[in-house]
Amino acid sequence: MTNEEKMRAVVAHGYGGPEVLGPVTVVLPEPGPGQVRIRVEAATVNPVDLVTRSGELVGAGLMAARERTGIGWDAAGVVDRLGTGVTAFAPGQRVIGLRDLLDVSLGAYAEYLVLDATAIAPAPADASAAAAATLPLNGLTALQSLGLLGLAAGATVLVTGASGAVGGFAVELAVRRGLRVVAQAGPADEGFVRSIGAERVVGRDASDLAAEVRRLVPGGVDGALDTAGLGIRALAAVRGGGAYATVVGGSAPLPLRGIRVHQQWIRADGAALADLAAMGLTLRVAETLPLERAAEAHDRLAAGGIRGRLVLLP
Asked: What is the per-residue pLDDT across 32-55, written as a single tens digit (0 to 9) for each?
């Protein structure tokens, strides 16, 4: 391949609703030292894509404004080219990877993606590209958040939004750590969260979440992983001196009653991603769509009610 070869991508032209998403044709990117170029087979649509496209992250000071913004954090595909110094991967190998830089002109919504070798891992065995693409961002978010809580085996943990993509992985990973999970989920999702290991379930629409949790766990849970951004409502379910972590930016409450409060900010971690890929976690794809229907995928995700992730196929 030469530097003059082109690829297709979908980017945000300015900021606003799904209508700002549109195609571009750009020069095929070359991997630099320590980098890998991936031929993308599947790219997941995540909530962070919507707030990036809308300009909310610019408004929050998390990224600079630009005329063209890359969208898409995680992808599955095949190694296409190696940068100098990369020995852990080989051309033709199936991999998954995470882009954790916000301020870029090209994201995973593309035919090719260049990532640091430290941000990718072998794809889960026997998983489709679409299913594999759902793991990096959501799985690492759950794993890193549980690490912040620092709970020992036998402890109790509340997972809010347990039927969601991050929440589902959090339940499975917590159970693997020997934690006893109280899952917050709607009636239609109770069977699912129990099937992946939740010991107890509280209703998503409970008027007093803390009271419901404390009825099941007197004194409160040892920790809460708040994937739904409930803030103080989830914190109130935690015992004094316990731990709380949120994955939703700006939703962290004050550390009342000596509770350790953490805001999880995702980081790429290829070694941890490789461990996740080997665990046989439940990978849920709601539907696949061609890359050019990215705007439709954003509309559908914003409307809610989706179980699993929408995945784009370049």
From this structure: 999 999 999 999 999 999 999 999
